[in-house]
Amino acid sequence: MKLITALFDGETFVGAVPQGDDRVVHLRRAERAMAGTEMMPTTMLAAIAQGEEFLARAQEVVDWALAHPTPQYVCRLNDVRLLAPIPRPAKNIFCIGKNYVDHALELGGADVPEHLIVFTKAPTTVIGHEETILRHAGVTNELDYEGELAVVIGKQGRGIRREDALDYVFGYTIINDVTARDLQERHQQYFLGKSLDTFCPMGPWIVPSKFMKNPNALHIETQVNGEVRQQANTKQLIFSIESIIETISKGITLEPGDIIATGTPAGVGKGMNPPRFLQTGDVIEVTVEGIGTLRNKVGE
């Protein structure tokens, strides 16, 4: 089961896409038809906060809806507009820098990091699958892509031990950590170059952790206009997902709905010789095994 935030018939709703299916279940409408009640949350953040209770109820509703389908609460995926799974995160997105050896070296580093590099992106950067990345031509001449696996936290915790870390994960999604390389270099930090509006495409959905066998062994690939630019496996992460959660939570409380982008592999435009930055009309597709493909086009 994949969880979506989507727009249909003028209404934004939390829905579910059954595994291997191209149908969407509107969870609140289906629940009303099934039980005469509307207990399902109206936002993904509220759903995540309910954790296992939500997932169990959602599965029950989905099973019933597929056995009793009507257009009122079951429709085709192509008939809805997918939004970012969490359209407006409650706080900044945590991001991990230089977490693949080859990527750390392609950007001119002499060594791989000994400690986690952490920066953040503003919540206003988030857009969904098939939404347009703004070119920001008046701000940057070095627009770049970074395909990444992202972790969505499901339980509040601080001082989380590595061996318990995955118990705090609600699910997984995809992020394109779009970057203005010239701003990043000019200001000698990450935030401005990472936080222009539309610089965090996310989606197309969240796959709950119970459906992901091993997040530390997933193939990841980024294509630009059909050309493969990045290819790697999350088993190549310098710092595993468990290590990332353990390190961030030392003194920082992680909360349900927090998002962590785990880092990008080699193959970014900045690392090519000569560099190949994104231009208006370019289409970026980030695919992560077990999740799907996040697709966005660069606009004006």
Describe the structure.
The chain has seven helices and 19 strands. With 300 residues, the chain is an alpha+beta fold. It has two domains: 81 residues, no CATH class; 206 residues, Alpha-Beta Complex (Fumarylacetoacetate hydrolase, domain 2), CATH 3.90.850. A hairpin with a 5-residue loop joins strand 2 and strand 3.
Write the layout of secondary structure elements.
Layout: E1 2-8, E2 11-17, E3 23-26, H1 27-35, H2 44-50, H3 52-67, E4 74-76, E5 81-82, E6 93-97, H4 101-106, E7 117-121, E8 126-127, E9 132-133, E10 143-144, E11 147-153, E12 169-176, E13 179-180, H5 181-187, H6 191-194, E14 200-208, E15 219-224, E16 227-233, H7 241-248, E17 259-261, E18 283-288, E19 292-298
Helix pairs in contact: 1-3, 2-3
Largest sheet: 7 strands, mixed
Secondary-structure element order, N to C: EEEHHHEEEHEEEEEEEHHEEEHEEE
Number of separate helices:
7
Q: Which of globular, elongated, flat, extended, rod-shaped describes the shape?
A: globular
What is the count of distinct domains? 2
Termini, distance in Å?
A: 35 Å
Compact description:
The chain has seven helices and 19 strands.
Task: Give the key terms.
300 residues, globular, alpha+beta, Fumarylacetoacetate hydrolase, domain 2, five-stranded antiparallel β-sheet, seven-stranded mixed β-sheet
